[in-house]
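The authors assume throughout that readers already know how a fold can be written as discrete tokens. The format is easy to grasp once an entry is in front of the reader. For illustration, here is how one protein appears when written out as sequence plus structure tokens:
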Amino acid sequence: MSVPYSLLDLSPIPEGADAAAALRNSIDLARHAEACGFARVWYAEHHNMPGLACTATAVLIGQAAAATSRIKVGSGGIMLPNHAPLVVAEQFGTLARLFPGRIELGLGRAPGTDMATARALRRHMSPESADAFPAEVHELIGYFAPEAAQAPVKAIPAAGADVEAWILGSSLYGAQLAAHLGLPYAFASHFAPAALEQAARVYRELFQPSARLAAPRFMMAINVFAADDDAQGFRLASSQAQAFANLRRGRPGPLPRPVDDLAEVLSPQDRAMAGEALSISAAGGPARVRDALAELIAAYAPDEVIFAASIHDHAARRRSLEIAAQAMGALAAAPAAAE
């Protein structure tokens, strides 16, 4: 069961720390992910979120790429309604020239924030802006075509640059669009698991081969909270559960400190809400995490997985990545051992 594994980093700001520390931790984590054999590290775009430092996604990608040497670095994703496609092409074309073969461009159609902030990001924002997403994806990808160097409007230095584009989503819309465009598709099952199975099926059934991709390539996101024993792993997971409940209740803030018992800080309704949203997770010690990952991969048959890991303590987050990598290595070796 050899499945490539990657890291999705939202650059969380833990309680008691600040954005500068969060960004330093993200760069350190990129180096650590590379050392642990991760295929890529992606940074999400969010705005006006007190607990996340990943607002200037392209800047963070450049810093992480400069601090590493082999791992692919990209966006998970750029929220295209917030930006002019030309500007995104210029940014990622520049990154691709600086770090050839290592830059990836995941694209989403949600604003990644509230509507007031979305309007501040792109002044002509309206509820219909997301409807332009397919056309804007087509425009953006077009800037990277070699022949774009002869177009009247050029995204210098994007034309001919090696940038792999992905479509991201948490519903069937993204699955259908990725299939239609012949692009790889990543599903946000780390916080919106309801349509995971159906989205994977729709994407594969409707996929149309393209010059960029000959066959479907589906990646699912999994929360991983791994520690040296089950109790520690479950405790690490409590921070993300609290953060999710706070967000849904309109009280976003820094990533909370972990607790031994969620019942002491969250109502039954909040625990149920967070538990449902974060159900695609592997938490606990090494054996439990390995078994949970094996079960999820067997159930949904992704071509790749990407791990989300919002953990309060940075050292614990580094250790979680190590355990996750070891688990994936064990799963890859298991079929050969059985033969």
User: Anything to note?
Assistant: Residues 148 and 159 are 5 Å apart (CA to CA). Residues 314-338 form the longest helix (25 residues). The first strand starts at residue 5 and ends at 9. DSSP finds eleven helices and nine strands in the chain.
